[in-house]
Amino acid sequence: MTTNTKGTKQAGEVDRRHALHLLKSMLRIRRLEERCAELYSAMKIRGFLHLYDGQEAVAVGVLEALTKDDAIVATYREHGHALMRGIPASAILAEMYGKQEGCSRGRGGSMHLFDEKTRFYGGNAIVRGGLPLAVGLALADKMQQKNRVSCCFFGEGAVAEGEFHESMNLAALWQLPVLFVCENNLYAMGTALKYSESVMDLTSKVMSYDVSSAAVDGMDVLAVEIAAKSAVEAIRSQGKPFFLECRTYRFRAHSMYDPELYRTKSEVEEWKGRGPIKTFIEKMKGQGTLSDADIETIEGDVAREINEAVAFAEACTWEPIEDVARFVYSERRMP
Amino acid sequence: MAKMTMVQALNLALRQEMERDENVIVLGEDVGVDGGVFRVTDGLHEAFGEERVVDTPLAENGIVGMSIGMAVYGLRPVCEIQFSGFAYQNFHQIENHASRLRWRSQGRYHVPMVLRAPYGGGVRALEHHSESREAFWAHIPGLKMVIPSGPRSARALLVSAIRDPDPVIFYEAKALYRAFREEVPEEEETLPLGESRIAREGDDLTLISYGAMLRPTLSAAEQLEKEDGVSAEVIDLLTISPLDDTLFVTSVKKTGHAMIVHEAPMSFGPGAEIIARLVEKAFYYLEVPIGRVTGYDVVIPLFAREKDYIPSVERITHEARRILET
């Protein structure tokens, strides 16, 4: 009896700690994106900017299921994935500022965050551009007998593109360890799924390639985490690809230029009611595992992290003009 | 005449051509309900309905391939690719089909389609959202490659492109979309494809440019006049391919000095072909080697260094003075 109670208590404590970690992770992304929006308005960040608000549970849940040896291929809405992968907020923000201390030397900006250390193979400004790349990484892993997973994020808009289908077929045909994560937020910029797909159940598409799949509520971080863990386990044990559809919603416009003529305010509000952070907080509070003091602590930590990152980005420098031609060709000598 | 931005002028061209010819169809990603990423197709969906203003899925190869099929059957599709950098995906359909069907079928099948795409820098975005790769298309026989330099030429050239019997790649400079207004007549106006124009007359130096680079080139010409007493002639190509060399060859025979300004990287860019023509046709009239002010042979840098990459008035005048002092 005593052992049991003690055991439950420990498990409960672990659960609470993990839940707080998940919550903090989502809040780190949310607050970073909010700050990005401000910095864009203040003209500190230029170019295009695509924010992740509403979809945080996907990046957080999926990345919990991966190890540091696995590879990540992301999209142009990738700030959250980069942050969860362990790229410091400072290096991400410096990149968006176009500064050379940024994770892509200030050359990529918001859409092209890259980081070799964390095996982050980039954001990608081209919808579906990363899918064949991820398949290639996985093929190389298989050829070199490395037991790693290549995780590729993309939106549902990518499903209409030819490379999606080529990639699914190749990954299945050659039994490659790829986790395909489709973040289905219902709109490819302004085009709703119903106007772009003859069959709206996306998992049915990969079935025809004999790729195992699951669809999960992408607004529920725990559900995403569980689904991703079991997908990764299947990939590692069977050496085959897996397609995970996370059904989610983006709260903000596609980019900072989007007039959002394609959806109603009430639809957005309805989805906000199902927001991943809001519902997770409600759930934890309901279980008595989260207090207002906890939230305050987390928010304080997150605010500090982001303030420091902004200060860092501000202090960073631009790549000298004489370096602009570097890395067009290799600086390595032929052996 | 109403004063219009280039976005409004392009919209006018599309609207009037759709009214005039029911075979004109607009298609692309978010061109319908949303009115296009740069709002060029704004209002067309309401005016002409979803059958003629078609929102497509993200499928560039499909969009262009379908446009070719529609064109072969007599429709006049005008497809929009959101950024010229996204058109690499449909390169295959343009290169292997649009440009060759007439030749392959010995003139029996025609592909009267237009591919519109925003190109060039000026919105401070990365790579494919800012680059100028017109040379890719200009290198393909069977295609026409058109780049207007302002609202009025944009409107007149788009009308001509839609009516043209051959496939036309139509690049619209993002930097010009809302940069300035020009008087654009409500009544029909066209400009012939394959013909350049003299944008400014002069006797001492010929500056050859097009698209977004025309304005800084004209400003540089004004500055040279004012500060150096140099009279520069400016040629606006309007069509990159097939290249009209008559005006610039005539001009260089007069001035003896030639310089090219474009945003595209230097090597194998349109300037290289222009120089070749001048060497072939005006070699003995050239007093000094031909100059070039272009983008550099690197990926266009992100916003922090965009200004250093894109030819500026200062770079143009600097090079012009170097040539004139040679």
Would you spell out the secondary-structure blueprint of this structure?
The complex is a heterodimer of chains A (about 325) and B (about 325).
Chain A: H1 2-41, H2 56-64, E1 71-73, H3 79-85, H4 89-96, H5 130-143, E2 150-155, H6 162-173, E3 178-184, E4 187-188, E5 191-192, H7 193-196, H8 202-207, E6 212-217, H9 221-238, E7 242-247, H10 265-273, H11 276-286, H12 292-315
Parallel strand pairs in A: 1-2, 2-3, 3-7, 6-7
Antiparallel strand pairs in A: 4-5
Helix pairs in contact in A: 1-2, 1-3, 1-11, 1-12, 2-3, 2-9, 4-12, 5-6
Chain B: E1 2-4, H1 6-20, E2 24-28, H2 44-48, E3 53-55, H3 60-72, E4 76-80, H4 91-98, H5 101-104, E5 114-119, H6 134-138, E6 144-146, H7 151-163, E7 168-173, E8 182-184, E9 197-200, E10 205-209, H8 214-228, E11 232-236, E12 239-241, H9 246-255, E13 258-265, H10 270-282, E14 291-295, H11 303-309, H12 313-325
Helix pairs in contact in B: 1-7, 3-4, 8-12, 9-10
Task: Please characterize this protein's 3D structure.
The complex is a heterodimer of chains A (335) and B (326). Chain A has a domain at 1-8 and 56-75 and 119-207 and 214-265: Rossmann fold. Mean pLDDT of chain A is 94; it is low at 1-7. In chain A, helix 9 (221-238) links the parallel strand 6 (212-217) and strand 7. Chain A is built from twelve helices and seven strands. In chain A, the strands form two sheets. A five-stranded parallel β-sheet of chain A has the order 1-2-3-7-6, with helices on both faces. Chain A has 335 residues and is an alpha/beta fold. In chain A, helix 1 (2-41) packs antiparallel against helix 11 and helix 1 (2-41) packs parallel to helix 12. Chain A starts with a helix and ends in a 20-residue tail after the last helix. Chain B is an alpha/beta fold. Chain B folds into two domains: 2-184, Rossmann fold; 197-325, 3-Layer(aba) Sandwich (Rossmann fold). In chain B, 37% of the residues lie in helices and 20% in strands. Chain B has twelve helices and 14 strands. Chain B has helices at residues 6-20, 44-48, 60-72, 91-98, 101-104, 134-138, 151-163, 214-228, 246-255, 270-282, 303-309, 313-325, and strands at 2-4, 24-28, 53-55, 76-80, 114-119, 144-146, 168-173, 182-184, 197-200, 205-209, 232-236, 239-241, 258-265, 291-295. In chain B, the strands form three sheets. In chain B, strands 3-2-4-5-7-6-12 form a seven-stranded mixed β-sheet, with helices on both faces. Chain B has a five-stranded mixed β-sheet with strand order 9-11-10-13-14, with helices on both faces. A two-stranded antiparallel ribbon of chain B has the order 1-8. In chain B, helix 3 runs parallel beside helix 4 and helix 9 (246-255) packs across helix 10. Chain B is globular. Chain A binds chain B through residues 46-48, 98-99, 106-109, 111-112, 125-128, 157-158, 160-162, 188-191, 195-197, 257-259, 261-262, 318-319, 321, 324-325, 328, and chain B through 29-30, 33-35, 37, 55-62, 85-86, 89, 123-129, 296-299, 301-305, 308-309.
